[in-house]
Design brief:
By secondary structure, the protein is α+β, with helices and mostly antiparallel strands. It has a five-stranded antiparallel beta sheet. A four-stranded antiparallel beta sheet has the order 1-9-8-7. The chain has three helices and nine strands; from the N terminus they run αβαβββββαβββ.
Length: 212
């Protein structure tokens, strides 16, 4: 059969099999990017919440002006082997969420001791570890050993106000571990002074005969 003539101006398309339609482009990379962006926003928001708490409780306490340590007539020494576990328990019981680890206690000549360690918390199930430093000034008040926080840093940010509960807790535990007054027998013993040195705290007591 002869080909029919083509009308003027009519386009002629070649006959043959047509190619299959292309599938729509996949959007998987876009979904992955969106998920990562959501995760990043969550981390930023969680970190901002932690920083908000930190800045709301920031500050530095001034050292307490104390009288020179009295010599007393009985001397005792307390080192990191006693204070370290007490500091660990006090931090854990101060209501601060997270895990405290790697506690180290050091002493400086004069009236200063430093507690360092690591604090781990989670943001969106991602563990975050920060270093913390607490500097304390030991002293004596009414025959009782008192540790006063001079400054506390959390990841390099001052958080002295946030550590007030820790100060109260560790002082109570030290009072339980180190009797400040002993009134049994014929002598009354009272704590009268403290002095820090590179490896320990020296505590001075006075023993006074009790009146009959």
């Amino acid at each position: 059969m002869a080909d029919e003539p083509t009308a003027p101006g009519e386009l002629v398309t070649p006959e043959g099999p047509t190619s299959p339609a292309k599938p729509p482009p996949r959007r998987r990379p876009l979904r992955i990017t969106f998920a990562l962006l959501t995760l990043l926003i969550g981390i930023v928001v969680g970190g901002a919440a932690v920083l908000l708490i930190i800045f709301a409780n920031s500050g530095t306490n001034h050292p307490i002006v104390t009288h020179p340590s009295e010599p007393g007539n009985i001397t005792a020494q307390v080192d990191a082997s006693l204070i370290g576990p007490i500091a660990q328990q006090s931090l854990e019981q101060s209501g601060i969420p997270g895990k405290i680890s790697n506690i180290q206690v050091t002493f400086a000549e004069g009236s200063e001791m430093t507690i360092t360690g690591q604090y781990q918390y989670t943001v969106l199930n991602i563990p975050v570890t920060q270093q913390f430093t607490i500097v304390l000034q030991p002293g004596v008040d009414a025959c009782k050993l008192q540790l006063h926080i001079i400054k506390a840093n959390y990841g390099g940010i001052p958080v002295t106000g946030f550590a007030t509960r820790f100060e109260n807790t560790i002082n109570q535990k030290l009072h339980d571990a180190i009797p400040s007054t002993i009134a049994n027998g014929t002598y009354a013993i009272c704590m009268v002074g403290v002095h820090t040195q590179p490896n320990s705290i020296t505590i001075n007591f006075t023993a006074t005969p009790r009146s009959a």
